[in-house]
C-alpha cells in the first residue's frame, strides 16, 4: 500500500506502508546504527518518535523475543529504505513486518532515507505525519501543530514500585523509561534493586535506605520534569548517585547547570567519546536530543567526557561527592560494550572512602 511522510516544513516522501497500517504523527529522528533495530524499537527513550534508519537494509535477521528493551515498541513509526521480507538468522522467531503488525507500529519503506536524513541534519529534528490516504492540507497542519511529547516520561515509567532481589548492594532506581539491559547490567553485579516511578518523592527513596541511587535514561526534555529535579536536589549529598542519559541531564539541572536542545540529536551506536580523565576514546551507544550546556556547570562539577563529533558534554562528576553521570549508554543494546565499566565504577563508589579522581576509572 502506498503511503507518504509529510514533514512540518512541507517536504513529502512517498513510499510503501508495511507493518500496522494506520495514520501516525510523531517527531522524526534518525539513527545511524547498522544493526539493533529491535532494541531501538523497544527503547523507551524513543517514545513519540518516528525513527529513520540510515542503514539501507533493515530486518534481515528478523526479530526474537529475548532482545527487547521494554515490554513493547515505543516508537511511533519505523522508516527504512528497504525491509527484508525473508529474514535469516538462527535466533529469528518472526519477521520485522509481522512484529510491527502485532505491536501496532507503522512502517514506511521505499523512500530516500539519505535525502531525509540530510534534511533533518540541515534543518533539525521536526514533526512528521505518515498517511496511507490523502487528507486536506489544513487537517494535516492541525495534527502536526497539536502533537507534543511533553508527557513522554509519564507514559513509559513504571506505574508502581517493584523489586528485583539480589545478594549485593541495594540500588534505588528512578525509572524515567529504563532499558532492560540497564537492569540486567545491575543484576549481573548482584545488586538488589528497588525501581521507583518517575514522580517518586525523595523521602520515599531514602526510607528504603539504599546503598546508592540510579537515575535512568528516558525520553523528552529534562526541564519539563520540574518535580523530579527538586527530588534529586534533596537526594544530593545523601547517597552515591549515577545518572545515564536523561538521568545525566536531570542531575546537571539539579546541581545548578542548564540543558539545551541539539539540532538533530545523537542517535546511533558509533559515537566517539573521549574520557578526559584517563585520556581514552570509546565508541558509544547514544540516544538523546538534549545535552548539558558546557558553560552552565558550577565550579564543583568537573567535565569528564566529551563527544568528539561536536565537543558536547558526555560525562561529569562532582568534585567532593560520590556523584557522576554520563550522557551515553554504557549498557549499549544496541552498540559496543566499551564503557560497561561505568557500572563497576558505580559499584566501587558504593563502598565509600574513594578519592574523587577515582570516580571515573
From TrEMBL:
Residues 1-131 form the Carbamoyl-phosphate synthase small subunit N-terminal domain. Residues 1-169 are annotated as: CPSase. Pfam families: CPSase_sm_chain, GATase. InterPro entries: Anth_synth/Amidotransfase (IPR050472), CarbamoylP_synth_ssu (IPR006274), CarbamoylP_synth_ssu_N (IPR002474), CarbP_synth_ssu_N_sf (IPR036480), Class_I_gatase-like (IPR029062), CPSase_GATase1 (IPR035686), GATASE (IPR017926). It is an enzyme of class 6 (ligase). Belongs to the CarA family. This is Carbamoyl phosphate synthase small chain. The lineage of its organism: Bacteria, Bacillati, Bacillota, Clostridia, Peptostreptococcales.
Amino acid at each position: 500500500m502506498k503511503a507518504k511522510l509529510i514533514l512540518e516544513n512541507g517536504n513529502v516522501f512517498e513510499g510503501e506502508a508495511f507493518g500496522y497500517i494506520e495514520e501516525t504523527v510523531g517527531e522524526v529522528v534518525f539513527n545511524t546504527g547498522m544493526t539493533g533495530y529491535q532494541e531501538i524499537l523497544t527503547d523507551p527513550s524513543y517514545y513519540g518518535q518516528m525513527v529513520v534508519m540510515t542503514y539501507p537494509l533493515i530486518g534481515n535477521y528478523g526479530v526474537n523475543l529475548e532482545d527487547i528493551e521494554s515490554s513493547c515498541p515505543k516508537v511511533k513509526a519505523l522508516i527504512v529504505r528497504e525491509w527484508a521480507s525473508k529474514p535469516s538468522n538462527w535466533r529469528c522467531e518472526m519477521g520485522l513486518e509481522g512484529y510491527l503488525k502485532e505491536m501496532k507500529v507503522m512502517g514506511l519503506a521505499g523512500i530516500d532515507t539519505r535525502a531525509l536524513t540530510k534534511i533533518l541534519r540541515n534543518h533539525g529534528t521536526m514533526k512528521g505525519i505518515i498517511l496511507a490516504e490523502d487528507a486536506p492540507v489544513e487537517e494535516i497542519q492541525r495534527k502536526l501543530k497539536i502533537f507534543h511529547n511533553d508527557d513522554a516520561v509519564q507514559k513509559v515509567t513504571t506505574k508502581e514500585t517493584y523489586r528485583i532481589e539480589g545478594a549485593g548492594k541495594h540500588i534505588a532506581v528512578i525509572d524515567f523509561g529504563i532499558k532492560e539491559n540497564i537492569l540486567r547490567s545491575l543484576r549481573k553485579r548482584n545488586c538488589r534493586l528497588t525501581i521507583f516511578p518517575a514522580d517518586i518523592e525523595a523521602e520515599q527513596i531514602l526510607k528504603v535506605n539504599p546503598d546508592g541511587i540510579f537515575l535512568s535514561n528516558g525520553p523528552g526534555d529534562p526541564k519539563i520534569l520540574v518535580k523530579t529535579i527538586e527530588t534529586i536536589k534533596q537526594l544530593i549529598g545523601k547517597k552515591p548517585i549515577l545518572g545515564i542519559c536523561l538521568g545525566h541531564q536531570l542531575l546537571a539541572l539539579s546541581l545548578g547547570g542548564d540543558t539545551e536542545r541539539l539540532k538533530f540529536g545523537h542517535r546511533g551506536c558509533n559515537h566517539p567519546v573521549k574520557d578526559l580523565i584517563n585520556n581514552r576514546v570509546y565508541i558509544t551507544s547514544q540516544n538523546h536530543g538534549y545535552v548539558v550546556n558546557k558553560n552552565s556547570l558550577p565550579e564543583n562539577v568537573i567535565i569528564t567526557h566529551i563527544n568528539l563529533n561536536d565537543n558536547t558534554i558526555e560525562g561529569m562528576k562532582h568534585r567532593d561527592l560520590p556523584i557522576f553521570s554520563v550522557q551515553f549508554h554504557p549498557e549499549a543494546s544496541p552498540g559496543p560494550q566499551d564503557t560497561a565499566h561505568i557500572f563497576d565504577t558505580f559499584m566501587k563508589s558504593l563502598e565509600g572512602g574513594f578519592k574523587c579522581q577515582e570516580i571515573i576509572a
